[in-house]
Amino acid sequence: MSARLVMMFLILVVFGSAVGAVYVKHQSRKLFVELQGLQAERDRLDVEWARLQIEQSTWATHVRVENLARTRLDMALPNNQEVVIVRP
Question: In Å, how far are 13, 15, 39, 47, 52 from 43, measured between CA atoms?
């Protein structure tokens, strides 16, 4: 009778071990797929960040700012008679 109990116990332990191994492998694959998705998202965000940096540098060029100042704000460079030099 005790040999039969030991055998049943060992069968349950082997079965439990097999189920555990399958579960761990499934979790590993699931996490790997999630990792790949996150890496793809990171790459997409890196590309967008680079595009936004280029766009920012384009919007902030001196020529563009000067053109906006002239057209929208009616600003112009002062002539020599309008320049006042202030000395301490």
Answer: 45, 42, 6, 6, 14
Close Cβ partners of 69 (under 8 Å, ≥ 6 residues apart): 75
**DSSP of 8-46:** HHHHHHHHHHHHHHHHHHHHHHHHHHHHHHHHHHHHHHH
- pLDDT(2) > 80: yes
Q: Supply the pTM of this predicted model.
A: 0.59
d(CA 44, CA 86) in angstroms, rounded, equals 52
Q: Residues 48, 55: contact at Cβ < 8 Å? A: no
